[in-house]
């Protein structure tokens, strides 16, 4: 589903950030009421401002790249500067327009679930900005990994960033993990929506995974967890997955 109009809160935030509104801040709202701010300018950041693990991980990108959840195009623009061909996709029509305006040459307003051989094949799939969350839940994750297997070349790589949900000191997060377990969901599976000013996205599922959980999900999907670039003392990491 592509988001437009009043549902495209993320796109509106990208547009505001692109226009230079330095105080453009969205809200990520979880279904238990927990909220976090989301700063629009982060999505425009050049590589020198990225976290060290993202800078290290993106060096593994090669060939033709699918930038899944491209946002305002920070990853695609960097890879284009390196001479790689990149296709940026996002369900936010507004974000796709911002990516295009900033110079991303190939963009499509579409969900990663819609990616098919018609726009492939790809040598690298970049899922940055914690976009391994697009795996959504354990069952959908295995389905999506198999789909990506079909639209990638032999020896392809997935570069996906995520957050270990268990590496936290926030009591509300631990309570949410327990709530998920009682409901038969993975602990780091969250239901959220995005808000910016008068716009609100639909609710959707997003998945945060520990490295062990990701390795287990990848088993039998046609991908293996080949390497991990992780923060020394933080929850964020970049997973390097190789096609088998």
Describe how the helices and strands are arranged.
Blueprint: H1 9-18, E1 25-30, E2 35-39, H2 52-58, E3 65-68, H3 74-81, E4 86-90, H4 93-101, E5 106-109, E6 122-127, H5 138-150, E7 152-163, H6 171-182, E8 189-196, E9 199-200, E10 204-207, H7 211-218, E11 223-230, E12 236-243
Parallel strand pairs: 3-4, 3-6, 4-5, 6-7
Antiparallel strand pairs: 1-2, 1-8, 7-12, 8-9, 8-10, 11-12
Helix pairs in contact: 1-4
Describe what you observe in this structure:
With 244 residues, the chain is an alpha/beta fold. The chain has a domain at 50-179 and 205-243: Rossmann fold (3-Layer(aba) Sandwich), CATH 3.40.50. It is 27% helix and 30% strand. The protein is built from seven helices and twelve strands. α5 links the parallel β6 and β7. α1 runs parallel beside α4. The radius of gyration is 17 Å and the shape is globular.
Task: Please provide a brief summary of the model.
The protein has 244 residues and is α/β, with parallel strands linked by helices. Helices cover 27% and strands 30% of the residues. The protein has a 7-stranded mixed β-sheet with strand order 5-4-3-6-7-12-11, with helices on both faces.
